[in-house]
Design a protein that fits this description.
39% helix, 3 strands, 3-stranded antiparallel beta sheet, alpha+beta
C-alpha cells in the first residue's frame, strides 16, 4: 500500500520544519534572545521536500513565530483522468508543517 501524495507532502513539511529548526542563528539568539533561522533553512526544507515528493512539493516560506518553525508550500498533484476529459493536468494544494526550534527553548527560564 502506498501513501497518498498529500500524506507524503505533510510529512515532508513537518520534517523540513524540524530540520530547518536546527539552523538557528546562534549569534542573534545570544544577543537578542530571539530565535531566527539562518538563510540556509529554506534550502534544507526544499531539499527534504524534493527527496520525499520527487519535486511535487514546492516550499514557499520558512519562518519562525516565537519558538515554532513553520514551513509553507504547495503540492502539485497530477490528474491524468481530469486531464484527459477536462484538460486539467494538475491540482495544487497548500501544505504546511511545524516544529519547535532546536535551540533556545531550554533557556526560557534563565
Amino acid at each position: 500500500m502506498s501513501l497518498r501524495p498529500t500524506v507524503i507532502a505533510q510529512n515532508a513539511a513537518d520534517l523540513g520544519a524540524q530540520e530547518a529548526g536546527k539552523l538557528i542563528d546562534a549569534e542573534h539568539f545570544v544577543r537578542w534572545q530571539e530565535v531566527r533561522l539562518r538563510p540556509q533553512a529554506i534550502l534544507v526544507a526544499q531539499q527534504i521536500a524534493d527527496e520525499m515528493t520527487g519535486g511535487a512539493f514546492r516550499v514557499d516560506a520558512v519562518y519562525v513565530e516565537g519558538n515554532v518553525v513553520h514551513v509553507e508550500g504547495r503540492l502539485a498533484i497530477r490528474t491524468p483522468f481530469l486531464n484527459t476529459f477536462l484538460g486539467i493536468a494538475q491540482v495544487v494544494r497548500p501544505v504546511s508543517g511545524t516544529a519547535e526550534a532546536a535551540h533556545g527553548a531550554e533557556r526560557g527560564g534563565e
